[in-house]
Amino acid sequence: MADLDRAARLARVPAAAKRVHLIGVGGTAMAALAGMLSDRGLTVTGSDNQLYEPTASLLRNSRVNVITGFAPANLSPPPDLAVVGNVIMRNNPEAQALLDTASFVIFNRPETALAPQTLHELGFAPARSRIVHLDTPAIAAHQVRDRLARGAPIDDLVPAAVADYIRTHELYRA
Question: What angle do CA 23, 140, 107 make, to 5 degrees?
């Protein structure tokens, strides 16, 4: 649990952050994160190619401004914080614009073998990047969805705040 507490401290949104942009906002987890950030009073924007239900409704109801398509212009004005979804590839023009200018904190899950020497190969500037290794259980969205469908608890899979948000907004429902 200490690793989860450490990760939670590192993942806190900086107090100075007022505008957050999510690249790949249409994914279930990214849409939930966008909603949580918006609920905290932040201005949240996001980009993706196409949205599907229920994430489209969640984003709309959460007042998240979604831009269709990926482009460097989506980062203007520059966000205080950007979150890049795991499906976004290096050749994505919006992600490339971030690689050229931003500083990064990369949360490395246990099943991922990302080492500092690979940062340059991936396009990250090592001087502007930091890897945080997490010792957390590897879970997938289908595990949360399966448990909720059976009426089983999810509190051991995700932090309590995330579990509450999922239940409140009825995410992962079939």
Answer: 55
Task: Find, among 27, 124, 39, 44, the residue nearest to 81 by Cα.
Answer: 44
**Around Cβ 51, how many Cβ atoms within 10 Å?**
19
With respect to CATH, is domain 12-89 assigned 3.40.50.720?
yes
Do the Cβ atoms of 30 and 21 come closer than 8 Å? no
Query: pLDDT (tens digit, 9 = 90+) per residue, 101-128?
Result: 776 666 666 666 666 666 666 677 767 6
SS3 156: coil
pLDDT over 80 (residue 3): no
Taking only the tens place, the pLDDT of each residue in 61-86 is 999 999 999 999 999 998 888 888 87
**What is the per-residue burial (b if ≥16 Cβ within 10 Å, else e) of 15-31?**
eeeeebbbbbbbbbbbb
| Element at 133 (helix H, strand E) | strand 129-133
Q: Among candidates 12, 16, 33, which has minimal Cα distance to 24?
A: 33
Residue 95 burial by CB count (10 A; 0-12/13-18/19+): exposed, middle or buried? buried
Distances (CA, A) of 65 to 26, 45, 54, 103, 137: 12, 5, 16, 24, 32
The gap from C-alpha 34 to its chain's centroid, in whole angstroms, comes to 8
